[in-house]
Amino acid sequence: MIRDCRLRLVTVCVLGVASCSSGAPQDSVMHGFAGASAVVAADSVPGSGPRPGGSGSEPLGHDDSARARHRFENAARWSQVWDDPERDGWQEPQRVVDLLRTQPGMRVADIGAGTGYFNRYLSRAVGPEGVVYAVDVESTLVAHMRARAADEATPNVRPILGAPDDPRIPVPRLDRVLLVDVYHHIDGRVAYFRRLRRQLDERSLVVVIDWLPGQLARGPDPQHKISAEETMEEMRAAGYSVVERTDLRYQYVLVFRPQP
Protein backbone atom coordinates (compact mmCIF):
# COMPACT_ATOMS: atom_id res chain seq x y z
CA MET A 1 0.00 0.00 0.00
CA ILE A 2 1.34 3.41 -0.95
CA ARG A 3 1.44 5.57 2.13
CA ASP A 4 3.67 8.51 1.21
CA CYS A 5 1.60 11.66 1.51
CA ARG A 6 3.97 13.33 -0.93
CA LEU A 7 2.46 11.34 -3.79
CA ARG A 8 1.18 13.52 -6.58
CA LEU A 9 -2.20 11.87 -6.31
CA VAL A 10 -5.44 12.66 -4.65
CA THR A 11 -8.00 10.00 -4.04
CA VAL A 12 -11.62 10.94 -4.26
CA CYS A 13 -12.61 8.45 -1.68
CA VAL A 14 -15.84 7.46 -0.17
CA LEU A 15 -14.09 6.36 2.93
CA GLY A 16 -11.90 9.34 2.89
CA VAL A 17 -8.53 7.73 3.54
CA ALA A 18 -5.71 9.98 4.33
CA SER A 19 -3.40 9.44 7.23
CA CYS A 20 0.32 8.87 6.95
CA SER A 21 0.60 7.84 10.56
CA SER A 22 1.56 4.28 11.39
CA GLY A 23 -0.96 1.57 10.60
CA ALA A 24 -3.83 1.69 8.13
CA PRO A 25 -5.16 5.10 7.13
CA GLN A 26 -7.64 5.99 9.83
CA ASP A 27 -10.60 6.73 7.63
CA SER A 28 -10.01 3.46 5.82
CA VAL A 29 -11.35 1.61 8.81
CA MET A 30 -14.72 2.91 8.45
CA HIS A 31 -16.12 4.48 3.26
CA GLY A 32 -15.77 8.16 -1.39
CA PHE A 33 -14.28 8.70 -2.57
CA ALA A 34 -11.59 5.54 -3.42
CA GLY A 35 -14.62 3.80 -0.86
CA ALA A 36 -15.31 5.43 -3.77
CA SER A 37 -12.02 6.52 -4.95
CA ALA A 38 -10.93 8.67 -7.77
CA VAL A 39 -7.39 9.85 -8.20
CA VAL A 40 -6.89 13.49 -9.03
CA ALA A 41 -3.55 14.76 -10.27
CA ALA A 42 -2.09 17.37 -7.95
CA ASP A 43 0.65 19.94 -8.39
CA SER A 44 1.25 20.40 -4.69
CA VAL A 45 0.97 18.58 -1.39
CA PRO A 46 -0.55 19.67 1.91
CA GLY A 47 1.66 22.26 3.50
CA SER A 48 3.28 23.33 0.23
CA GLY A 49 1.97 26.85 0.58
CA PRO A 50 -1.35 28.61 0.15
CA ARG A 51 -3.26 28.58 -3.10
CA PRO A 52 -6.26 30.76 -2.26
CA GLY A 53 -9.15 29.58 -4.39
CA GLY A 54 -6.93 26.74 -5.58
CA SER A 55 -7.75 27.17 -9.26
CA GLY A 56 -8.07 30.78 -10.27
CA SER A 57 -11.46 31.03 -8.61
CA GLU A 58 -12.73 33.95 -6.63
CA PRO A 59 -10.72 34.31 -3.41
CA LEU A 60 -11.55 31.94 -0.60
CA GLY A 61 -10.65 32.25 3.05
CA HIS A 62 -8.62 29.03 2.75
CA ASP A 63 -6.79 26.77 0.30
CA ASP A 64 -8.94 24.35 -1.71
CA SER A 65 -6.23 21.80 -2.45
CA ALA A 66 -6.63 18.22 -1.29
CA ARG A 67 -6.41 17.53 2.43
CA ALA A 68 -5.21 13.93 1.89
CA ARG A 69 -3.60 11.74 -0.78
CA HIS A 70 -3.74 8.00 -1.09
CA ARG A 71 -4.13 5.13 -3.59
CA PHE A 72 -6.73 2.35 -3.35
CA GLU A 73 -5.60 -0.29 -5.81
CA ASN A 74 -6.30 -3.45 -3.80
CA ALA A 75 -10.02 -4.02 -4.35
CA ALA A 76 -10.16 -7.15 -2.20
CA ARG A 77 -8.65 -5.35 0.77
CA TRP A 78 -10.83 -2.28 0.52
CA SER A 79 -13.95 -4.35 0.02
CA GLN A 80 -13.36 -5.82 3.48
CA VAL A 81 -13.28 -2.29 4.86
CA TRP A 82 -15.94 -0.43 2.88
CA ASP A 83 -18.39 -3.32 2.67
CA ASP A 84 -18.08 -4.33 6.32
CA PRO A 85 -21.66 -5.11 7.47
CA GLU A 86 -21.11 -2.93 10.55
CA ARG A 87 -20.91 0.10 8.30
CA ASP A 88 -24.64 0.04 7.64
CA GLY A 89 -25.33 1.03 11.25
CA TRP A 90 -23.51 4.36 11.09
CA GLN A 91 -23.59 5.10 7.36
CA GLU A 92 -27.38 4.67 7.09
CA PRO A 93 -27.30 4.07 3.32
CA GLN A 94 -31.05 4.18 2.82
CA ARG A 95 -31.25 7.50 4.63
CA VAL A 96 -28.52 8.83 2.34
CA VAL A 97 -30.50 7.73 -0.72
CA ASP A 98 -33.61 9.39 0.72
CA LEU A 99 -31.68 12.65 1.12
CA LEU A 100 -30.87 12.50 -2.60
CA ARG A 101 -34.63 12.68 -3.28
CA THR A 102 -34.13 10.20 -6.08
CA GLN A 103 -37.03 9.26 -8.34
CA PRO A 104 -37.47 6.40 -10.81
CA GLY A 105 -35.87 7.06 -14.17
CA MET A 106 -33.24 9.47 -12.88
CA ARG A 107 -29.57 9.53 -13.84
CA VAL A 108 -27.44 9.47 -10.69
CA ALA A 109 -23.65 9.67 -10.35
CA ASP A 110 -21.70 8.32 -7.38
CA ILE A 111 -18.33 10.01 -7.76
CA GLY A 112 -15.68 7.96 -6.02
CA ALA A 113 -17.82 4.84 -5.86
CA GLY A 114 -14.95 2.58 -4.76
CA THR A 115 -16.14 -0.98 -4.32
CA GLY A 116 -19.76 0.00 -5.01
CA TYR A 117 -21.18 0.12 -1.49
CA PHE A 118 -24.06 2.41 -2.52
CA ASN A 119 -24.70 0.89 -5.95
CA ARG A 120 -27.53 -1.49 -5.08
CA TYR A 121 -29.34 1.17 -3.04
CA LEU A 122 -29.10 3.70 -5.86
CA SER A 123 -30.03 1.06 -8.44
CA ARG A 124 -33.24 0.26 -6.58
CA ALA A 125 -34.07 3.97 -6.17
CA VAL A 126 -33.80 4.88 -9.87
CA GLY A 127 -35.45 1.68 -11.08
CA PRO A 128 -34.96 -0.14 -14.38
CA GLU A 129 -35.46 3.04 -16.43
CA GLY A 130 -32.81 4.96 -14.49
CA VAL A 131 -29.02 4.76 -14.56
CA VAL A 132 -26.37 4.80 -11.83
CA TYR A 133 -22.95 5.99 -12.99
CA ALA A 134 -20.45 4.55 -10.49
CA VAL A 135 -17.26 6.54 -11.06
CA ASP A 136 -13.77 5.72 -9.85
CA VAL A 137 -10.26 6.36 -11.16
CA GLU A 138 -8.80 3.10 -9.88
CA SER A 139 -9.20 0.57 -12.70
CA THR A 140 -9.17 -2.33 -10.22
CA LEU A 141 -12.14 -0.85 -8.39
CA VAL A 142 -14.03 -0.26 -11.62
CA ALA A 143 -13.47 -3.91 -12.56
CA HIS A 144 -14.65 -4.93 -9.08
CA MET A 145 -17.85 -2.91 -9.52
CA ARG A 146 -18.54 -4.50 -12.91
CA ALA A 147 -18.38 -7.93 -11.31
CA ARG A 148 -20.47 -6.74 -8.39
CA ALA A 149 -23.18 -5.38 -10.69
CA ALA A 150 -23.42 -8.80 -12.32
CA ASP A 151 -23.53 -10.57 -8.94
CA GLU A 152 -26.19 -8.20 -7.58
CA ALA A 153 -28.21 -8.22 -10.81
CA THR A 154 -28.14 -4.43 -11.16
CA PRO A 155 -27.81 -3.89 -14.92
CA ASN A 156 -28.60 -0.19 -14.54
CA VAL A 157 -25.27 0.33 -12.68
CA ARG A 158 -22.58 1.47 -15.10
CA PRO A 159 -19.07 1.60 -13.61
CA ILE A 160 -16.93 4.30 -15.22
CA LEU A 161 -13.19 4.89 -15.10
CA GLY A 162 -12.93 8.59 -14.37
CA ALA A 163 -10.09 10.98 -15.19
CA PRO A 164 -8.22 13.08 -12.64
CA ASP A 165 -10.23 16.22 -13.33
CA ASP A 166 -13.27 14.76 -15.09
CA PRO A 167 -15.62 11.96 -14.01
CA ARG A 168 -16.20 11.20 -17.71
CA ILE A 169 -19.91 10.61 -17.34
CA PRO A 170 -21.16 10.26 -20.92
CA VAL A 171 -24.45 12.15 -20.65
CA PRO A 172 -25.21 15.87 -21.03
CA ARG A 173 -27.32 16.05 -17.86
CA LEU A 174 -27.35 14.41 -14.44
CA ASP A 175 -30.22 14.52 -11.97
CA ARG A 176 -28.28 13.68 -8.82
CA VAL A 177 -24.63 13.51 -7.76
CA LEU A 178 -23.37 11.81 -4.59
CA LEU A 179 -19.94 12.13 -2.98
CA VAL A 180 -19.37 10.27 0.28
CA ASP A 181 -16.14 10.92 2.20
CA VAL A 182 -14.69 12.12 -1.08
CA TYR A 183 -14.78 15.89 -1.02
CA HIS A 184 -11.69 16.45 1.15
CA HIS A 185 -9.61 14.36 -1.29
CA ILE A 186 -10.34 16.51 -4.36
CA ASP A 187 -7.73 19.00 -5.53
CA GLY A 188 -8.92 22.37 -6.79
CA ARG A 189 -12.46 21.74 -5.66
CA VAL A 190 -13.95 25.02 -6.87
CA ALA A 191 -12.79 24.42 -10.44
CA TYR A 192 -13.83 20.75 -10.27
CA PHE A 193 -17.40 21.55 -9.29
CA ARG A 194 -17.66 24.41 -11.75
CA ARG A 195 -16.87 21.91 -14.50
CA LEU A 196 -19.36 19.41 -13.11
CA ARG A 197 -22.04 22.10 -13.10
CA ARG A 198 -22.10 21.98 -16.91
CA GLN A 199 -23.89 18.62 -16.62
CA LEU A 200 -26.45 19.88 -14.11
CA ASP A 201 -29.48 22.13 -14.22
CA GLU A 202 -31.62 23.97 -11.67
CA ARG A 203 -33.45 20.73 -10.78
CA SER A 204 -30.28 18.74 -10.09
CA LEU A 205 -28.95 18.09 -6.60
CA VAL A 206 -25.43 17.40 -5.35
CA VAL A 207 -25.06 15.67 -1.98
CA VAL A 208 -21.70 15.98 -0.23
CA ILE A 209 -21.07 13.79 2.81
CA ASP A 210 -17.83 14.20 4.72
CA TRP A 211 -16.40 13.80 8.20
CA LEU A 212 -17.43 15.80 11.24
CA PRO A 213 -14.61 17.67 13.02
CA GLY A 214 -12.41 16.29 15.79
CA GLN A 215 -10.97 12.89 16.56
CA LEU A 216 -13.74 10.34 16.08
CA ALA A 217 -13.97 6.56 16.29
CA ARG A 218 -14.04 6.54 12.49
CA GLY A 219 -12.67 8.89 9.89
CA PRO A 220 -9.33 10.54 9.10
CA ASP A 221 -7.09 12.47 11.45
CA PRO A 222 -8.53 15.92 12.18
CA GLN A 223 -5.91 17.73 10.09
CA HIS A 224 -7.14 15.91 6.98
CA LYS A 225 -10.75 16.95 7.36
CA ILE A 226 -12.63 19.82 5.80
CA SER A 227 -15.37 21.52 7.75
CA ALA A 228 -18.94 21.89 6.59
CA GLU A 229 -18.44 25.67 6.62
CA GLU A 230 -15.43 25.45 4.28
CA THR A 231 -17.32 23.07 2.00
CA MET A 232 -20.26 25.45 1.77
CA GLU A 233 -17.95 28.39 1.05
CA GLU A 234 -16.26 26.51 -1.79
CA MET A 235 -19.49 25.24 -3.30
CA ARG A 236 -20.97 28.74 -3.27
CA ALA A 237 -17.85 29.95 -5.10
CA ALA A 238 -18.41 27.15 -7.64
CA GLY A 239 -21.99 28.29 -8.24
CA TYR A 240 -24.15 26.23 -5.88
CA SER A 241 -26.56 27.11 -3.10
CA VAL A 242 -27.15 25.10 0.07
CA VAL A 243 -30.54 23.40 0.24
CA GLU A 244 -30.20 21.37 3.43
CA ARG A 245 -27.77 20.33 6.12
CA THR A 246 -28.04 17.38 8.47
CA ASP A 247 -25.66 15.03 10.30
CA LEU A 248 -25.09 11.32 10.48
CA ARG A 249 -23.20 9.74 13.39
CA TYR A 250 -19.73 10.63 12.09
CA GLN A 251 -20.46 12.74 9.01
CA TYR A 252 -22.17 15.93 7.95
CA VAL A 253 -24.51 15.91 4.94
CA LEU A 254 -24.86 18.95 2.69
CA VAL A 255 -27.38 19.12 -0.14
CA PHE A 256 -26.62 21.64 -2.90
CA ARG A 257 -28.45 22.92 -5.95
CA PRO A 258 -26.76 24.65 -8.90
CA GLN A 259 -27.55 28.34 -9.03
CA PRO A 260 -29.29 29.60 -12.20
Description:
By secondary structure, this protein is α/β, with parallel strands linked by helices. It has a single domain, classed as 3-Layer(aba) Sandwich (Rossmann fold). Helices cover about 25% and strands about 20% of the residues. Strands 5-4-3-6-7-9-8 form a 7-stranded mixed beta sheet, sandwiched between helices. A two-stranded antiparallel sheet has the order 1-2. The model is unreliable at about 1-55 (pLDDT under 50).
The CATH architecture would be 3-Layer(aba) Sandwich
Provide a count of the helices.
Answer: 7
Secondary structure class reads alpha/beta
CATH homologous superfamily heading: Vaccinia Virus protein VP39
Strand portion, in percent? 15-25%
Work out the number of β strands: 9
Over all CA atoms, what is the radius of gyration? 16 Å
The total domain count is 1
- Enter the CATH topology name: Rossmann fold
> How would you write the strand order of the largest sheet?
5-4-3-6-7-9-8
- CATH domain class name: Alpha Beta
In whole angstroms, the N-to-C terminal distance is 43 Å
Tell me about the largest β-sheet: 7 strands, mixed
pLDDT average, as an integer? Answer: 79
Helix content: 10-25%
Instruction: Indicate the overall shape.
Output: globular
Helix-strand sequence: EEHHHEHEHEEHEHEE
Stretches with pLDDT under 50, minimum 5 residues? 1-57
